[in-house]
Amino acid sequence: MAERVKAGDKFPNTELRIHDGEKVNPVKTHDLLNGKLTVVFGVPGAFTPTCTNSHCPSYVRLSKDLKAKGVDQVVCVSVNDAFVMRHWGEFLKATEHVTFAGDGNGELARALGLVKDLTSAGMGLRCFRFAAIVQPDLSVKYVTVDEKEYGSTSADSIIAHL
Questions:
Q1: CB 136 within 8 A of CB 37
Q2: Measured between alpha carbons, how far is 1 from 3 in angstroms, rounded to an integer?
Q3: 161 contact partners, CB below 8 Å, separation of at least 6
Q4: Is 21 left (phi over 0), alpha (psi -120 to 50) or beta?
Q5: Does the predicted TM-score (pTM) go above 0.90?
Q6: In which order are the strands placed within the sheet that holds 73-78?
Q7: How far is Cα 136 from Cα 157, in angstroms, rounded to an integer?
Q8: Residue 43: beta bridge partners?
Q9: Among 17, 73, 143, 153, who pairs with 102 as Cys (CB 3.0-4.6 Å)?
Q10: Burial letters for 104-143: b for 16+ Cβ neighbours within 10 Å, e otherwise?
Q11: Distance between CA 33 and CA 31 in Å, rounded?
Q12: How distant is the alpha carbon of residue 5 from its chain centre?
């Protein structure tokens, strides 16, 4: 597994899959992020309680504030397939504010050094809850990981680092 991502690193270039409402599109992270100030946040799983009730909704609720701070896009990633991510975004009524990207094979989670083993909970290998500010040149300006409790990765917390 890769060393854990830190501020100053170049964001890794892996393939994600995004369902646009009609079909699944593979996209390289560098193509998705290049030239845009982006907040990327990762969750252990779509439809899980904290992710659904708190984490993702914080980015929807503060989407105007993020835009006012210069954020061009917000991307949510999870070790789920693109179909699940699309339906989760629709369930949350969030697809106008957040791009939901599936990291189905965990390639991005591995490249970021953020694989979380949840096999004891029947969830397999997932991603730690994280949030990163990625500069238009693909460098990581700021990154935080919630090792146990949700908090530092919320939109409320990220805004302070923009």
A1: yes
A2: 7
A3: 133, 141, 142
A4: left
A5: yes
A6: 24-28, 15-19, 99-102, 73-78, 38-43, 129-134, 140-146
A7: 21
A8: 78
A9: 17
A10: bebbbbbbbbbbbebeeeeeeebbbbbbbbbbeebebebb
A11: 6
A12: 14
CA–CA distance, 160 with 16 (Å, rounded to integer): 28
In the chain the first and final C-alpha atoms are separated, in Å, by: 29
Two tokens, residue 63: 């989407």
Of residues 88, 90, 13, 98, the one with CA closest to residue 45: 88
Contact indicator for 118, 44 with CB cutoff of 8 Å: yes
Encode pLDDT of 122-156 as tens digits.
Answer: 765 778 889 999 999 999 999 999 988 888 999 99
Element (H, E) at 111: helix 107-111
Q: Which two tokens stand for residue 47?
A: 């439809």
Q: Do the bridges between strand 115-117 and strand 125-127 make them parallel or antiparallel, or are there none, so unpaired?
A: antiparallel
Whole-angstrom CA distances from 114 to 21, 23, 25, 31 are 28, 28, 24, 21
The model's pLDDT over 17-70, given as tens digits with 9 standing for 90+, comes to 999 999 999 999 999 999 999 999 999 888 887 888 889 999 999 999 999 999
Q: Which residues are catalytic?
A: 51
R_g (Cα) of the chain, nearest Å: 14
